[in-house]
Amino acid sequence: MQDFENIQSLWQSHAVEAKISSGEMLEQAKKEVNSIRTKSLLNIGGMVLSLIAFSAALLYFDFDSWTTKLGIGIIVLAVAIYTILLYREHRLISRNDFTVHPGAFLAKLHEYQLSRFNLYNRLFWFYVAAISLGFILFFFETLHHLDTLVQLSILLFTILWMVFCATILRKAFMKKEKERIDLLIEKFGRISAQFNEQE
Q1: Which sequence ranges are marked TM in the entry (predicted)?
Q2: Do residues 162 and 128 make contact, with C-beta atoms less than 8 angstroms apart?
Q3: Closest CA to 66 of 143, 141, 151, 145
């Protein structure tokens, strides 16, 4: 037993602490920030394409029922509001140059994290409710002409898809994004501390 304790104390005395320079850490953080910015732009682009598609359907298709027009209008409004919110969040993370002052960027990262939390917890349910209401109103006219089995299949698929997106997919995405932003905040906290030590 004493031999084991001697080996353990010898091993602990030779443990090497891995240190990453602030330059290397800044380079890693730069890649992660650029990845977040790119994903943010892709999300905004997808929402803009959705906005254009639904707006085009509203303008160029001749629907007989006012409920269909109202449904598509609600969808367009919900997508437009969500797109504006995504753009506002994108500006939070893309406005500051983190290489100039990591501390200021760290404050913006905290603000971005809180904004994302609100977007995926509170505002997400507004978005889902508006989209659901829009699709319900839209389906009054469009499903009326189809066979009952097809109507039920489309409604069931839509409900299941929205439940899947609102529960499993949303939670997995939130967890992954929270871990990613937490890691980035930790890195910028270290970088900021190292820059403060050098000053």
Answers
A1: 40-60, 66-87, 123-143, 149-169
A2: yes
A3: 141
Residue 135 lies in a domain: yes
For 98, other C-beta atoms within 10 Å of its C-beta total: 21
- Rounded Cα distance between 132 and 135, Å, is 5
Split into its structural domains, the chain has a count of: 1
What is d(CA 10, CA 2) in angstroms, rounded to the nearest whole number?
12
pTM attached to this predicted model: 0.72
Domain assignment present for 150: yes
Model confidence pLDDT, tens digit, residues 64-85 = 888 889 999 999 999 999 999 8
Assess if residue 19 is contained within a domain. Answer: no
